[in-house]
């Protein structure tokens, strides 16, 4: 970062205040008020944000993007040079006088920017982990954040800001509390997500619009943007670095909403009016979602890492223990001793991975070498047999601690399993070639998938780890992405044979097992090995590659062609 994109990005990010400072020194009639250029700058950022996932990423690979970026940077440098020469050669219409700024002004500018920046990140975290784990959903809060700058610094900004300031306290009261209610159903989650986005739009517009109305004359422009940037950085650091270490749940979001209520008072300037919205919001949070969340925290074990928020909790009847990552189930274990070793959810014996694991002794003998990417609660460990060698690859140390502390799959079924912590693309490359007979890849943290685990190069890493006759299993269950044609295209591209098993609850799962819909794909470079798996039983089906199926690679991968909606 320091040697490549970091300095370049720093230079590019400084263009907005630089252009405005130069413009203020020209002979243009609007030189005395250059802040409209900041609206134009953020409009450009908004256009780029929308264009990248919708146009650039689906149509161009990374090499083409690198050339485009380099050409754009050269063009930018030429335009900056041209602007500098123009500014130097013109006489200013308005003489720029020195503008001293007080520390009170600087801290207020930084505070308004910090709360807005923090709300962007905290809203994104809440939406993508606690409400809806949907691909590309993070684009929407960022687009709203940029639009609030565009509107706030536009010609109509003062009028719209005044309306946003009047609406903010009421929206904070109406939406702020219910945002934190636990046990949300799917339809309610969608409504809360929409309400949260509306709240983000109004509040950030009020904050940024207030910044625009309190901006200094052109002489204080650079100081204004410096402290605005400081505030934005503080808000980002608080949410991205401090909050995961301090809080076991995204408590930064209600804290930032309270801060916004303090910064955006009811009409009037008395201390009581300033404190009123914040105090009322605190009461509403305590009366609705706040108390509900407190009860949830007392009843469950919450663990937070930089990869998200995990919750471990027991069912109401005390017979089941759950592991969730945001809205996604990552494991389930029976607390009934007789069923404690039974795999459940996506891993029941009737699922694709369950049938493959049961067939391992027949396929590879008693000393089979098994690898699992993605630990979860450790459920798959209970398919282990004496003599087998198991290796678990997990990116998050917090998950390893949860699986060992709160669940007994590992302790009861595979206590000697080797644990490798780190990104599987990197840790697998450090393993000996052909050291596994079967590799199960279950690395998705939610419906948003890590693309680098589903590329041509990733399959090359998996193939290197497997014996020539080895078996690769990939879990592709997803509500929003149709990954079957992607895997089929990758298999055809890499010379793999492929089969798919689409399991539905109630299909040979057993009366005492809690099962979940799952789709597992089996791949092998040896057709005979895949035929033997199919012969061992189960509704394995062929997976033909579509003519327009994308072949994802490290240089090109886009989820847009495979987006879909499935409610079951």
How would you summarize the topology of this molecule?
Blueprint: H1 5-13, H2 15-23, H3 36-59, H4 62-89, H5 103-131, H6 139-152, H7 157-176, H8 186-213, H9 221-246, H10 252-263, H11 271-299, E1 301-305, E2 308-314, E3 320-325, E4 328-334, H12 352-364, E5 369-373, E6 389-394, H13 397-405, H14 409-413, E7 418-421, H15 424-429, E8 436-441, H16 456-465, E9 466-475, H17 484-494, E10 497-503, E11 518-524, H18 527-535, E12 541-542
Concise overview:
The chain has 568 residues and is an alpha/beta fold. It has helices at residues 5-13, 15-23, 36-59, 62-89, 103-131, 139-152, 157-176, 186-213, 221-246, 252-263, 271-299, 352-364, 397-405, 409-413, 424-429, 456-465, 484-494, 527-535, and strands at 301-305, 308-314, 320-325, 328-334, 369-373, 389-394, 418-421, 436-441, 466-475, 497-503, 518-524, 541-542. It is globular, with a radius of gyration of 27 Å.
Which labels suit this protein?
about 575 residues, alpha/beta, 8-stranded mixed beta sheet, 4-stranded antiparallel beta sheet, about 15% strand
């Amino acid at each position: 970062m320091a040697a490549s994109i970091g300095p370049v990005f720093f230079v590019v990010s400084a263009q907005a205040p630089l252009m405005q400072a130069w413009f203020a020194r020209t002979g243009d009639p609007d030189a005395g008020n250059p802040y409209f250029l900041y609206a134009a700058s953020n409009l450009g950022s908004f256009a780029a944000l929308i264009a990248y996932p919708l146009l650039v990423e689906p149509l161009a690979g990374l090499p083409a993007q690198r050339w485009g970026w380099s050409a754009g940077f050269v063009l930018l440098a030429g335009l900056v040079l041209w602007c500098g020469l123009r500014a130097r050669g013109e006489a200013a219409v308005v003489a720029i006088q020195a503008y001293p700024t007080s520390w009170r002004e600087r801290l207020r500018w930084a505070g308004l920017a910090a709360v807005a920046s923090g709300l962007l990140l905290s809203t994104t975290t809440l939406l993508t982990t606690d409400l809806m784990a949907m691909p590309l959903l993070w684009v929407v809060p960022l687009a709203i954040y940029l639009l609030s700058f565009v509107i706030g610094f536009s010609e109509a900004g003062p009028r719209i800001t005044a309306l946003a300031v009047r609406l903010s306290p009421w929206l904070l009261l109406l939406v702020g509390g219910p945002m934190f209610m636990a046990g949300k159903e799917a339809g309610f989650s969608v409504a809360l997500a929409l309400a949260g986005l509306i709240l983000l739009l109004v509040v950030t517009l009020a904050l940024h619009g207030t910044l625009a109305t309190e901006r200094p004359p052109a002489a204080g422009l650079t100081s204004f943007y410096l402290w605005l940037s400081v505030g934005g950085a503080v808000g980002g650091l608080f949410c991205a670095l401090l909050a995961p270490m301090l809080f076991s749940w995204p408590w930064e979001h209600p804290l930032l909403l309270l801060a916004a209520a303090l910064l955006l008072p009811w009409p009037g300037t008395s201390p009581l009016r300033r404190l009123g919205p914040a105090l009322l919001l605190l009461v509403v949070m305590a009366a609705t979602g706040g108390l509900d969340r407190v009860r949830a925290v007392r009843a469950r074990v919450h663990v937070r890492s930089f990869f998200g928020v995990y919750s471990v909790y027991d069912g109401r009847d005390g017979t089941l223990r759950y592991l969730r990552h945001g809205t996604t189930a990552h494991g389930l274990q029976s607390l009934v001793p007789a069923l404690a070793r039974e795999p459940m959810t996506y891993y029941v014996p009737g699922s694709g991975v369950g049938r493959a694991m049961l067939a391992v002794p027949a396929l590879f003998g008693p000393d089979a070498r098994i690898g699992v990417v993605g630990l979860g609660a450790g459920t798959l460990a209970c398919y282990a047999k004496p003599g087998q060698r198991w290796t678990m690859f997990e990116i998050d140390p917090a998950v390893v601690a949860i699986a060992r502390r709160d669940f007994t799959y590992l302790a009861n079924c595979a206590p000697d399993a080797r644990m490798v912590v780190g990104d599987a693309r990197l840790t697998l490359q450090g393993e000996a070639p052909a050291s596994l007979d079967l590799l199960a890849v279950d690395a998705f943290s939610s419906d948003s998938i890590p693309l680098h685990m589903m590329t041509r190069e990733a399959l090359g890493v998996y193939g290197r780890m497997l014996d020539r006759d080895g078996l690769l299993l990939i879990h592709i269950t997803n509500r929003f992405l149709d990954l079957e044609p992607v895997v089929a295209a990758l298999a055809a591209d890499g010379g793999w044979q492929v089969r798919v098993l689409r399991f539905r609850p109630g299909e040979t799962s057993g009366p005492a097992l809690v099962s979940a819909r799952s789709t597992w794909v089996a791949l092998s470079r040896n057709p005979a090995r895949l035929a033997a798996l199919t012969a061992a039983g189960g509704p394995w089906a062929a997976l033909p590659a579509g003519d327009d199926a994308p072949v994802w690679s490290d240089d090109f991968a886009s989820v847009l062609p495979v987006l879909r909606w499935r409610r079951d």
